[in-house]
Amino acid sequence: MPVEEKNKVIYISHPSGSTAEVALYGATVTSWKVAGIERLFVSKEAIRDGSKAIRGGIPLVFPIFGTKENIQLPQHGFARNSYWEFVGVIHDNNEEVSVRFTLKDTQLESKLRNGWPYSFRLTYTVTLGEKSINTVLGLKNEDEDTFEFNTLLHTYFNAPNIADVTVDGLKSLNFIDKVANGIKELETRDQVTIHSEVDRIYCNVPNHLQVNFGKDYSISIEKTGLKDTVVWNPWIEKSKAMGDFDNEEYHNMICVEVGSVADWVKLGGGESWTGGQTLCVL
Ligand code: BG6
């Protein structure tokens, strides 16, 4: 069977041998293997019992990024902290296997629903190919009035060694440096490298990016409908401050997170929005 459900996790296999796993908690993609190699990072300290967002994989940030003074929601919103419904297999052929999840306001715990009191339906479609995974978020505003939101596909990549990691495609872009009190800067490097804590929102990013993992392999990122890209590595002190992250794991991960977070996205009553990414091992 190309798709199986066990203990609230959906296991997907492609005829080529590539596999993916999606936890119903957060609809979090927690594994993506191509040629037997795990391409996503999940902390060995990650909590998987549904009491905290899973530290790794592709958590979904929605409807806020970080925290907002006037919105009573946990950091990064509720999508990664809620159980989604598995809609089923959308298609399954030799090219790709596609599954879908949904989250409606009525599925939220009341505290979360009160924090963002709008009617909405999120759909999340995960499509596994031989060397690729495509993750697309759809949103329908089921209210009459406009609401605004932020969202991010908070992808944690497995990095054999962070010292060898480079990110292409960010040159000449403005970024907000969250490590330097939100100061705005211009990226001048062809390739972004990580040698200390990095927490940056690159704004208005072209749709093609590439993350290189030394000589081992690269992963291309094609995004659609999402303007920005966050690059994050907690480095030493922040790693120590996170209870669900091993102190040494910052050597082995990088987050390159496509989303729309620098500005609110407005969605009119009855309207739909979609945004997503395709990751492909090169
Ligand atoms: C990133 C943010 O997207 O997520 C960082 O830019 C944040 O500021 C990181 O630290 C992890 O957030 P959390 O809530 O999963 O610890």
UniProtKB/TrEMBL annotation:
Report the GO terms under cellular component.
Answer: cytoplasm
UniProt keyword list: Isomerase
The UniProt GO MF terms for this protein read: carbohydrate binding; glucose-6-phosphate 1-epimerase activity
Instruction: Specify the domain of life of the species encoding this protein.
Output: Eukaryota
* Enzyme class (EC, first level): isomerase
Q: Which residues form the active site?
A: 154, 257
Q: What does this protein do?
A: Catalyzes the interconversion between the alpha and beta anomers from at least three hexose 6-phosphate sugars (Glc6P, Gal6P, and Man6P).
Q: What is this protein called?
A: Glucose-6-phosphate 1-epimerase
Record organism: Circinella minor
